[in-house]
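Continuing from the previous page of notes. For each protein in this section, the sequence appears first, followed by its structure tokens. Read the first protein now.
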Amino acid sequence: MSKGILLDANNGLKIEKGTLRIGERKMQDAYLVLLTNQGEFKHDPLVGVNLNKMIRGRENREKILKTIEIGLERAGVKFDDVKAQFGILINKRNIT
């Protein structure tokens, strides 16, 4: 279980009643990895999966899944732990 600072729906710091919220962030980290491109995280420029570029480039399903798995692993998230919660469709098939 990985705890840390939580983000709100707009990716800003989650503050409730004047207090910065801390909690389980596995899904949040996975979401951020899928959302970003490589080079967008200063502390680790290789984090990010360039998902938008891959989909527009019409990459095959297996390459997209492998890239997602590697990107998540780099951020400390196991793909198998989160894939069922995403409901991602690739080539009209669910990733699970």
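Done with the first. The second protein uses the same format. Note its length before scrolling.
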Amino acid sequence: MNTERLSPHFTLRELTKTSVRIENVPGEKEVENLRRLCRWLEMLRSRWNMMYGDGEDPIVVNSGYRSPAVNKAVGGAPTSNHLTGCAADIRVSGLEQLLRYAVILLDISDESGEDFDELLLERKGAVMWLHFAVRPCGNRRKVRMI
């Protein structure tokens, strides 16, 4: 898989990794969407490190782009923003980090005047993550705890 840089701290490989053994290669449009998403992830990383981190804390993406086959295999929604490269599931170390990431992204949106599509605080058992999506247009600013 390609190690192409989408931004200073994120690669195409990182945003297309998957736990299933199915090809997961995005097209040009999906790669452009991943670049847009990575701009937000870079801002999140920068703010987190400025406010709470030790200066080099990474933002870890559990899931980014998903091909239709991968999305189906992992039980993703048929209309998931992952299918278009517009979403990332971000690993967190606990509830506090989950909430702080969400607040940082809300602040970035408010300050920049740019909207996002989804900011979902998700949990399955003891595992929590932040689902964040930004589309090229038609963003809904949907915020939920799931």
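What the second structure shows: The longest strand covers residues 118-124. The two ends are 32 Å apart (CA to CA). We return to this in next week's lecture.
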